């Protein structure tokens, strides 16, 4: 293939467009580009829209954690400080992660939007894609391709106290904290909302 496509946007169907518009505006720092009663386009970067919300004029069926389809969308932050600052901002507004996961390749916070869709806020733990790929082909990832949960509040406090990012973004650090619920069981729990 000579041309590589780039992901342009995601479209979500909802029966509660205003609630999703507000949630994504808050969580992603997005703003509305266009909206009418059945459609809303949002963006948070140079693209004209990264997310669209469609509200059909019929009743939509609620999503469950076991609904077939897209598992989650993910959004990358430039640094651990940026990710954890957003975590603290959202927590102050009552929006808390469903589960944080130290994947090894990323440090991730998973949230549920008001419709139950999973949204991952993350940083890449490696500066180069080939380093991340090498990690994913290595023994730590092979032994556990999901990774452990961690305490994001403790991580934020540790970062502010001067703990190096290279230490905080390891599975060893995640496992050294308090016991956390299994991430996969959290994903499957009925409508754990953020």
Question: What can you tell me about this protein's structure?
Answer:
This protein has helices at residues 17-28, 80-92, 129-136, 139-143, 152-160, 165-168, 171-176, 183-188, and strands at residues 10-13, 31-36, 39-43, 51-54, 72-76, 99-102, 106-112, 118-124. The protein is α/β, with parallel strands linked by helices and 194 residues long. It folds into 2 domains: 1-57, 2,3-Dihydroxybiphenyl 1,2-Dioxygenase, domain 1 (Roll); 67-194, 2,3-Dihydroxybiphenyl 1,2-Dioxygenase, domain 1 (Roll). Helix 2 packs across helix 5 (152-160).
Structural features:
globular; 2 domains; single chain; 2,3-Dihydroxybiphenyl 1,2-Dioxygenase, domain 1; four-stranded mixed beta sheet; 194 residues
């Amino acid at each position: 293939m000579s041309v590589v496509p780039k992901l342009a946007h995601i479209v979500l169907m909802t029966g509660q467009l205003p609630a999703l518009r507000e949630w994504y505006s808050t969580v992603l720092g997005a703003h509305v580009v266009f909206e009418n009663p059945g459609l809303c386009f949002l963006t948070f970067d140079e693209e004209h829209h990264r997310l669209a919300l469609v509200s059909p004029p019929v009743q939509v069926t609620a999503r469950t954690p076991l609904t077939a389809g897209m598992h989650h969308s993910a959004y990358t932050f430039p640094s651990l400080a940026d990710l954890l600052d957003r975590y603290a901002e959202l927590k102050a507004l009552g929006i808390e992660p469903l589960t944080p996961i130290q994947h090894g390749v990323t440090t991730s916070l998973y949230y549920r939007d008001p419709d139950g869709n999973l949204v991952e806020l993350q940083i890449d733990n490696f500066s180069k894609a080939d380093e991340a790929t090498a990690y994913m082909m290595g023994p730590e990832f092979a032994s556990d391709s999901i990774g452990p949960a961690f305490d994001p509040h403790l991580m934020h406090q540790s970062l502010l106290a001067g703990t190096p990012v290279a230490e905080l973004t390891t599975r060893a650090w995640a496992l050294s904290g308090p016991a956390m619920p299994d991430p996969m069981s959290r994903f499957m729990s009925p409508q754990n909302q953020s």
